Give the backbone structure.
Amino acid sequence: MFPIRDHNPSERVPYVTFTLIGLNIAVYLYGLAAHQTDQALMQLYFDYAMIPARLSEGEGYTGLVTSVFLHAGFMHLAGNMLFLWIFGDNLEEKMGHVPFLIFYLFCGIGASLAQYATDPGSVVPTVGASGAIAGVMGGYLLLFPKARVDVFIFFIVFFRIFPIPAWIMLGLWFGLQLFNGVGADVTGGGVAYWAHAGGFVIGFILTLPVWLRQGGTRFWQRTHGHPDHPEATYGRSSIPIVRRR
């Protein structure tokens, strides 16, 4: 299950969201072009990823920021940019361009520190924008809990697009990060689940002042938990249910 769009795209151009997407793509393409050997790639990660053991030794602090713009593969990049495109524009519209950029970077740094706290001696590089984007999702959940999000569901014998409230989709996503984070602590793994969970919580907390300035629960009552502008009109999905014969 993954989201493909929400029903309340922003009414103003989300310049920061588009710039972040473009910057992440540019950094990924640069990495492909300039680091074509395993040795060169590992040097890139050593210089710019977040490596907990380096932080513990008092070095590599710039990796807390630069790691947010590195990705380990095309699907890693594509998934993160899809989530940023869906959830970033409404938050940027509500916060403003510069505050949203600062918010995004703080969430990315906080997410990296959350991952660091779980294993300060790890030499495994942590890369990706998912911690920062998890913060965006946490903020979105607070401001727009009932916004409708179209999710693509594939379950063995059928696939279809369903609109569901944001609080269900984001709540399930956050719960999975906690569950998988505990499992990864036991079995090991290649996904920074605690960065995801930490970023989500940090984003939720950092959005509280915005929510309170909007009136808190009165904001929810006024907007019914949606972004405060009309929904977009989408036609019914033409993707059919496909069953195995």
Strands lie at 2-6, 148-155, 158-165. The two ends are 23 Å apart (CA to CA). The first strand starts at residue 2 and ends at 6.
